[in-house]
Write a structure and sequence with these properties.
This protein has 610 residues and is mainly α. The protein folds into two domains: 280 residues, ABC transporter involved in vitamin B12 uptake, BtuC (Orthogonal Bundle); 234 residues, no CATH class. It has 24 helices and four strands. Strand 1 and strand 2 form a beta hairpin. Helix 2 packs antiparallel against helix 3, helix 3 packs antiparallel against helix 8 and helix 19 runs antiparallel to helix 20. It starts with a helix and ends with a helix.
């Protein structure tokens, strides 16, 4: 391999790294000050790209229309971010912090369909930057002129941010809030104004990053998800809240991605997330980040033993209804009920992990995906009978949990969440690129139950039994002395450890139990659909049970099943009547978060208390 080709790959990686830096620096800044994991950050990037595409052809500035469009798009996105913070997020700052995450996820749905409505579903090819078209020769290899210019943008923005943070009073306050937000508030600083400016600046950087990507790649309706995951990697590797760390990590990830595609194309996706996992395990606060002054519980008031005490008679009544009613329903409704049962168990398993254990997971799709792929591979590759593959699937997931949990429980808070995301994305990359074994993005097909279980009603009763058994297991464990220890570790791990409790062992066991039940949900799902694809391990699949849990109410065990049922029913009904179902569903979620910040079950609990 020639040195000139390596040089071109290096430059290509640096160009991509500069865009990554713009996105990640804004994401890091927002999280560092507000402690909000902003899932809508990728949407701001996408909006910046699409707005630039429109402005470049509509502004009456001649050759300067593109550059004017870049700045105008970034400013409009920044103003949109400001409005989101003032009009929406400010209303839920006093709610449990996870509900702020749910609100940003609802915005992702709204913005996604908004882009489809205004720009359509077809991919767009953006204009070239005037004066930077064509290529230049680099060591005998042609390289885009625009990419050369792009490598200069990152350092210029980094210098501007350095000047802001180290040479202005506002920047000093931002840096102080990144390190100790509570102390800054105690000194009399108006946090609301600080949060608003941070969202404005972070959204501007995201919009600018999207705008600068227009000449480099096609615009798609799903470009927000991919860049968001990469930005998370950069933020974690560099250090949350560290702008210099974001720059260093962006260069590292961008160059590694470029050379990975060249040297290890079948493992390029895995490499990035392996680096993320290694950094979190070895240095949780990142290359240039600092350990948090105060670890805060990510979800606010969580469950107590009393919250698990839903009367068994209520569960029995519900179970009886689920047994008696389906024979009178149409086939479509029975299939829908099976899917709801799978997601009820999936959401309940995450609720146990987050609510009782205080371990927020952004990678719970690993449980679902390992169970689904475990069942499919045992059934199709090992020729195992379907009932046996169904029973072994959660054991496959639990085996994965033994390995993942060993490392994850050494961390806490947002670092634990990010490490679970890294492991989930490693699993996603493996199944996506291992075509010979997992089928890659073609998936595995023909995963159907045998004839004696093949009718909708028979498979429904199997799914009901499995889901009920999983939920009952979680409920029993949630009432046990083991769960009391978990809640003690959640509320104050230091005190529990001081009296002789083995923190890691108990959290490890809880992690395995949650993943086991999540794997069982995956097994139910794969034999329902007859196929499995890599999206069962995607970020969206990890977010889904979290949304369901928060929608129902994280303070009560019944919240997860209720939230899962409501979410899937809304999803099914809205999808049937409009192609812009994400917009409608996102608006419904926004209303529920703002009107009922403690979830649906929390609303009924408050009314009963009154």
């Amino acid at each position: 391999m020639s040195s000139s080709l390596l040089l071109v790959q290096l430059l290509s990686g640096l160009a991509h790294a500069m865009v990554l830096f713009l996105i990640a620096s804004g994401l890091s800044l927002i999280f560092g000050v507000t402690r909000i994991v902003n899932f809508a950050h990728g949407s701001f990037y996408m909006l910046g790209a699409y707005m630039t595409y429109t402005f470049a052809s509509s502004l009456p500035l001649g050759p300067a229309s593109f550059y004017g469009g870049v700045l105008l798009a970034a400013v409009i996105v920044a103003i949109l971010g400001l409005l989101v913070e003032v009009a929406l997020l400010r209303r839920v700052y006093r709610a449990p912090e996870l509900y702020q995450l749910l609100l940003t996820f609802a915005l992702v749905l709204v913005f996604s369909d908004g882009v489809r409505f205004f720009w359509g579903t077809e991919n767009k090819i953006g204009p070239q930057a005037p004066g930077l078209t064509g290529s230049i020769s680099v060591a005998g290899q042609l390289f885009p002129t625009y990419d050369i210019a792009l490598t200069a943008v990152g350092p210029l923005v980094a210098f501007a941010l350095w000047w802001l943070f180290f040479r202005t009073r506002l920047g000093i306050l931002i840096r102080a809030a990144t390190q100790d937000r509570e102390m800054v508030a105690a000194l009399g600083v108006d946090q609301s104004r600080l949060f608003t400016f941070v969202f404005f600046l972070g959204s501007f950087l995201a919009g600018l990053g999207g705008a600068l990507q227009v000449p480099r790649q096609a615009l798609t309706n799903v470009m927000d998800t991919g860049i968001l995951v990469e930005a998370f990697v950069v933020v974690v590797v560099g250090g949350m809240g560290s702008i210099p760390g974001a720059f260093l990590a962006a260069v590292l990830i961008g160059v590694m991605d470029a050379f990975g595609l060249l040297l290890l194309p079948k493992a390029s996706l895995v490499l990035i997330f392996v680096v993320m996992a290694v950094v979190l395990i070895v240095r949780p606060h990142g290359l240039l980040g600092r350990p948090e002054v105060l670890q805060r519980t990510a979800s606010g008031p969580l469950v107590t033993e009393r919250n698990f005490l839903v009367p068994w008679s209520w569960w029995a009544l519900l179970f009886g209804a689920l047994v008696a009613i389906p024979p009178f329903l149409p086939v479509f409704s029975v299939w829908g009920l099976i899917e709801i049962l799978a997601f009820v168990l999936f959401a309940a398993s995450l609720h146990f992990l987050v609510g009782a254990g205080g371990m927020l997971s952004f990678g719970h799709a690993a449980a679902f995906g390992l169970g689904a792929y475990g069942a499919a591979l045992l059934f199709q590759k090992a020729h195992m009978p379907m009932p046996l593959a169904f029973l072994c699937a959660p054991l496959v997931a639990a085996a994965g949990a033994v390995l993942m949990g060993f490392f994850c429980v050494r961390l806490s808070g947002i670092y634990f969440a990010m490490l679970t995301l890294a492991f989930s994305q490693i699993a996603y990359a493996v199944v996506h690129q291992w075509y010979d074994f997992t089928g890659g993005d073609n998936g595995l097909l023909g995963i159907w139950p045998p004839g004696w279980l093949g009718t909708p009603l028979r498979y429904y009763y199997l799914s009901l039994a499995a889901s009920a058994a999983g939920v009952a297991l979680l409920a029993v464990v949630g009432r046990s002395p083991f769960a009391l220890i978990l809640r003690a570790l959640r509320d104050h791990a230091g005190r529990a450890e001081a009296i002789g409790v083995n923190v890691r062992r108990h959290q490890w066991l809880a992690f395995i139990v949650a993943v086991f039940c999540g794997g069982l949900a995956g097994a139910i799902f794969v034999f329902l659909k007859g196929s499995v694809f890599p999206n069962s391990l995607s970020v969206q699949m990890s977010v889904a049970p979290l949304v369901m849990t928060l929608l129902g109410g994280i303070q009560a065990f019944a919240g997860a099943p209720v939230g899962a049922a409501v979410y899937k029913i809304l999803d099914t009904v809205v999808t049937r009547y409009t192609e812009y179902w994400q917009l409608v569903l996102g608006c419904i979620l926004l209303f529920l978060v703002l009107a009922f910040p403690h979830g649906i079950v929390g609303l009924f609990r408050e009314r009963r208390r009154d």
